[in-house]
Amino acid sequence: MQLALFIIFGGLALVGALNLLFQRHPIHSALSLVVVMMSLAVLYWSLGAEFLAAAQVIVYSGAIMVLFVFVIMLLNAGKEERTRGSRAAYAVGFPGAAAIFCLLSFVFLSERGALMTSNIGGDLSNAVDNIAQVSAMLFTRQLLPFEVTSVLILVAILGAVVLARKEQ
Amino acid sequence: MTHLTNFELFLLLSALKVAVVLVITLLGVAYTVLLERKLLARIQNRWGPCRVGPFGLLQPLVDGAKSFLKEDMNPLAVERPLFILAPILALGCALISVAVVPFGAVTRVDGVDLFQIANVNIGLLVILGITSIGVYGIALSGWSSNNKYSLLGSLRSTAQVVSYELALGLSLVGVVLRAQSLNLRTIVSSQSAHGALSWNIFGGFQTVAFFIYLMAAYAETNRAPFDLPEAENELVAGYHTEYSSMKFAMFFMAEYANMITVSCVATLLFLGGASSPFGHIFDGFLRTPVLNAIFPVCWFVAKVFAFLALYIWVRGTLPRFRYDQLMSFGWKFLLPLAMANIIVTSFVLAMRG
Fold first, then answer.
1. Which residue of A lies nearest to B120 if distances are taken between CA atoms?
2. Other CB atoms within 10 A of residue A137 CB
3. Contact A129 B140 (CB under 8 A)
C-alpha cells in the first residue's frame, strides 16, 4: 500500500516538477508547483507525518501558491520568451546539479544502514498522535529557534506593512 | 463473509460508504437549493417553486435535467484546459471534505465504522486544507474565462477567501484547545457529557468563537452578506459569467456543497455533533442497537438543517457589504477577536490545570 502510494505520488511530483520547468505560461508553472506540493503532502502522510502533511497543504498549496497565482493574475503576465540561455547558467548549472546529486547520493549511501531499520508509517495506525509529539518538541527543546523564527516572520510582516502603506 | 480478507472487506465497505455519502450529499445539495428558494420566497411573501410535484418537491430534479440538456457553450478566447478544470476543482474540493465528517455515533460493523468514511487524527486540518485548495476553482475560472467581470469577481473572491480563512482557522483553535485533539470524533465526544450544556457554544464558553466562525464561514462560502464575488449589479455574475450548462451547475452545486460542509463543521465543533441535546437522560428509552445508531444521525441532520436555515434567513435579511468594509471587518475586527478568544481560552484552561 505504502509502496504503491510512493510510486504514484513520487511520480506525480516528478512530472509536476518537470512540467513546471517546461510550461511557458507562468500560471501553468504555478499550478504544476501546486501539484508538486500536494504530492509531497501525500508522501509525508504515507510516512506517518500527518501534521506536516496538513501544514504543507494549508500553508504552501492553500496560502502561498494562491498568492502566487493571484499576483500572476493581477499582473496578467504573458507567455515567457524562450532564449538559448546564458553561458554562465550552463557553466555553473550543470556542474552544480551534478555536485548536489553526488552530495545527496553520498549522504544516502553512507547512511544506508539506518535507512531500512526505521519503522516508517508506524504512526498510521492512529496509535500515536504526532501533533502532540511535534508540539512538545517545538515548545521544549526547540523553543529558542521556534521563537526566533516567529520574531523573524513578525519582522517580515511589519516590513510588508511599511512597504504597502501610502505616503502621508 | 469468511471468504473475504480483512483488507478486501474494508475496501468494499469503504467504497459503499463513499457511494452512499456522495449520493446523500448531492441530494442534500439539490434540496438545499429548493429549501433556499422556498424560505426566501416566504421571507419575501411569495410562494416560491410550487408547480412541479407536490409543494414543488420535484423542482431540483427538473432543474438538474434542464442544465444537462442546455447547450454547453465554450467561448473562443478561453484558456481551454483551465476553463474545464476550474469547475471540477471547485465541486471536487467541496465534496471531498465530507469524507472526514462523523455523522453518527461510533457504530462498528466488522471493525468498520459505519457513520464516517475516514477517521483521521487531523480531521479538522484536512477540512481546512481542502477548503483552502477550493480557492483555485474560483481563481482559475475567473482568469481562464478571459473576461474582465470574471477576473474582477475571482480576484475579489480569492482575496476574500484567503483573508477570512485566517479568522476561520483561529476561531477553531479554542475548540481544539478544549478537546486537546484535532480528531473530529474526539472533539465531538469532548462535548457529550451533559447534552446541550456541555456543547462548545454554551458550556464550553466558545460562544464568541462560534460567532466568529459563523461570519467567517459565510465569507468563505461567498454567501450573503459577503457575496461580493457574484454581486450581480456590479459584476454581471462574477467568476462564472462565461460558464453555461453543467459547468455552471457544478459551480452552483459547489457553493451549496460548501454550505453543507461548513454547517457540518459548525455542528461538530460547536453544537456537539451527533450527540443528543438532552445528554443521557433518554438513553433508557432506546436500548435497541438499531435505534441507538439512527437517533444520533437524526440529531446531526437536524442540527445541520438548522444551520442551513440560518444561512438562508441571513441571506433573506441582510444587505451586502461594501468591499473595503468587508476587508476591514475581517482583518481589523474578526482576526483580533479570534486571537483574544484564543488567549482567554488558553489562560482559563491553564488556570484550571
1. A126
2. 12
3. no
Q: Which residues pair with B113 in a beta bridge?
A: B108
Predicted confidence (pLDDT) per residue in A43-100, tens digit: 888 877 788 888 888 888 888 888 888 888 887 767 777 777 777 878 888 889 999 9
Of A27, A31, A126, the CB nearest to B121: A126
Separation of alpha carbons B120 and B128, rounded Å: 14
Cβ contacts of B118 on chain A, cutoff 8 Å:
none
Instruction: Categorize the per-residue pLDDT at A123 as very low, low, confident or very high, splitting at 50, 70 and 90.
Output: very low
C-alpha cell read off for A161: 506593512
Closest CA to B185 of B91, B122, B260, B263: B122
pLDDT digits (tens, 9 = 90+) for B223-252: 778 777 676 666 677 777 778 778 888 888
Asked whether the predicted pLDDT for residue A128 surpasses 60, the reply is no
| DSSP codes of every residue in B302-341 | HHHHHHHHHHHHHHHHPPPPPHHHHHHIIIIIIHHHHHHH
Residue A106 burial (CB < 10 Å; 0-12/13-18/19+)?
exposed
Q: CA nearest A38 in B: which residue?
A: B133
- Point out which residues pair with B112 in neighbouring strands: B109
Q: Does B154 touch chain A (CB under 8 A)?
A: yes
Separation of alpha carbons B10 and B140, rounded Å: 37
- d(CA B186, CA A137) in angstroms, rounded, equals 23
**Spatial separation of the C-alpha atoms in residues B229 and B214, rounded to whole Å:** 19
What are A30-57's pLDDT values in tens digits? Answer: 889 999 999 999 888 887 778 888 888 8
**Cβ within 8 Å of A, B 177-206:** 181-182
**How many other C-beta atoms can be found within 10 angstroms of the C-beta atom of residue B103?**
22
Complex ipTM, two decimals? Answer: 0.78
Look-up: residue for cell 523553543? A143
How far apart (Å, rounded) are the C-alpha atoms in residues B179 and B177?
Answer: 6
* Region class of A45: left (phi > 0), else alpha (psi between -120 and 50), else beta: alpha
Q: Residue B146: which residues within 8 A CB-CB, separation 6 or more?
A: B75, B77, B78, B79, B242
Which chain B positions have a beta carbon within 8 Å of A73's beta carbon?
A: 139, 142-143, 151, 154-155
- Chain A nearest C-alpha distance from B163 (Å): 10
Alpha carbon distance A162, A142 (integer Å): 31
User: In terms of Cα–Cα distance, which of B143, B172, B171 is closest to B157?
Assistant: B143
B264 part of contact set with chain A, CB < 8 Å: no
- What is the band of A6 on the pLDDT scale with cuts at 50, 70, 90? confident
- A131 in contact with B, Cβ within 8 Å: yes
Q: CB-CB: which of B120, B125, B132 is closest to A63?
A: B132
Compare CB distances from A63 to B151, B155, B162 and report the shortest one's residue. Answer: B162
C-alpha span between B95 and B99 (Å, rounded)? 8
Torsion of CA A7, A8, A10, A16, to 10 degrees: 150
